[in-house]
From TrEMBL:
Annotated Pfam families: Glyco_hydro_88 (PF07470)
PANTHER family with a match to the protein in the record: UNSATURATED RHAMNOGALACTURONAN HYDROLASE (EUROFUNG) (PTHR33886)
Highest classification ranks of the organism: Bacteria, Pseudomonadati, Pseudomonadota, Alphaproteobacteria, Sphingomonadales
The keyword Hydrolase is annotated on this UniProt entry: yes
Name of the protein this chain belongs to: Glycosyl hydrolase family 88
Origin species: Sphingomonas naasensis
Keywords attached to this entry: Hydrolase, Signal
Top-level taxon of origin: Bacteria
Amino acid sequence: MKLSAFAAALLLATPSAALAQRAPATASASTIDAAVRLADWQLGQMHGGTVSRATGETKKPRAWEQAVFWVGMTALADAGGPPRIRKAILDMGAANEWLPGEKPYFADDHVITQSYLWAARNGAGEVARGPAQRTFDRVINAPAVTSLAFFIPPAGYGSAECLRRWCWCDALFMAPPAFVEMALQTGDARYREFALREFWATTDFLFDPVEHLYYRDSRFFERRDGKGRKEFWSRGNGWVFGGMARTIPLLAKGSADRVRMEGLFLEMAGRIKALQKPDGYWAPSLLAPEDSPPETSGTAFYTYGLAWGINSGLLLRAEYEPVVRRGWAALQRAIQPDGRLGYVQQVSDRPEKVEPGDTQYYGVGAFLLAATQIAALDRPTR
């Protein structure tokens, strides 16, 4: 398969060329090395040929599947990844002309802007922020008016009216960090106010206060498995948990919204801890662990979020570090002989089967996020 010019250029940045740039072999450096190796593997596979279940968005460089990988790359760059990680992010943004995805109101098409806003702070300047700001201005100046109830019309999933708002839990990773970061970079609080208003509307609608978990969307309110258990999708809740870990640090300490979100994070963390399987993974259907396969995308988001919670002082290290270590060990075991991250559930909206060779950009992005927080956990305290 012929690579794009951008992907071909990325292949020139081989792992061997960067070995001399790596940190000494401490536990922290070893974790970052593992992340860099996986990032190298993915940079060489941006053509999408390794994705088991390609969608219409898999090869689109501005769509969410690839965009989540780039979010992980920004974290890796910040955590001490070699300079070529930063360069790859800047090159990607320039190749995309810093444009968001195609649909201005669709949260999945906003996630790529998280990497652009990082780039705006890391050398690219205003040019990296401008297109995202214009899209966000359209959204906040004329907010969508629709119910959060999820109904799929005859025209298909993508035509669901509620997708113009954040009516599926994944959206809470995709959009809020970008809107809040835009407020910080521009000084315009309206972006943050919009994001938090929508975040709480979605939470009030989809969060189950009994199970302390999110339904993927309203179609799952009444769904039960053969044993009468509610269906809570691992990656769906991982999106929310990881999204809070990215949003909370951007909110003013002591602000009402930050305090409320930290409380929600703690509530979810306790439930997530209790649902980890003995092998370190979380089941694709969180309440149905029996005979469940390894699954790395949800596991990576939980490992990331819990490690971040410890590092931020929200979670007790003695209580949560064993959970994080089991999750990280499980993620490392999922690396396949060819270098890919395996056992990534493919694009879906519910729990499904997973195979060892299944990989995806967003799973790699979640692994990179987890690795950066594990590395932070491993640094000696002063």
